[in-house]
């Protein structure tokens, strides 16, 4: 878990070639759930909000991430958008309709306070080890 958090903390989120710098596209298979939770926290620290996006089976993962952040008092829900997109698995095949969700979360009023407290807990734990 510490490796995931460290990796997220060392990410540089200033890629200007990406037009929506506060969007996280979530996949079921690529990263563990708490990688996305920690990444979303980092995005909210830098941009005050984060947009979680997913297709198909990854929708449940996005909803879980949003609920973890909301239930821990870190985020407030600003907007939820759903749609379907047409995708082709191979050229020449009929398009497949996939469900899509986008959830926009903003910092809660207590976000900075809660993040500071969590950081202090980590420092205290490391000093005890």
UniProtKB/TrEMBL annotation:
Alphabetized GO MF terms: RNA binding
GO terms under cellular component: nucleus
Residue ranges occupied by any DNA/RNA-binding protein Alba-like domain in the UniProt entry: 22-83
Domain of life: Eukaryota
PANTHER family: DNA/RNA-BINDING PROTEIN ALBA 3, DNA_RNA-BINDING PROTEIN ALBA-LIKE DOMAIN-CONTAINING PROTEIN
Protein name as catalogued: Alba DNA/RNA-binding protein
């Amino acid at each position: 878990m510490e490796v995931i958090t460290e990796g997220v903390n060392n990410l540089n989120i200033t890629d200007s070639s990406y037009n929506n710098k506060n969007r996280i596209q979530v996949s079921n298979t690529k990263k563990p759930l708490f990688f996305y939770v920690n990444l979303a926290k980092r995005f909210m620290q830098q941009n005050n909000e984060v947009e979680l996006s997913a297709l198909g089976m990854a929708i449940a993962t996005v909803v879980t991430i949003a609920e973890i952040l909301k239930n821990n008092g870190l985020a407030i829900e600003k907007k939820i958008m759903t749609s379907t997109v047409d995708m082709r698995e191979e050229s020449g095949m009929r398009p497949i309709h996939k469900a899509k969700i986008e959830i926009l979360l903003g910092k809660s009023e207590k976000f900075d306070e809660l993040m500071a407290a969590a950081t202090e807990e980590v420092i205290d734990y490391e000093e005890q080890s």
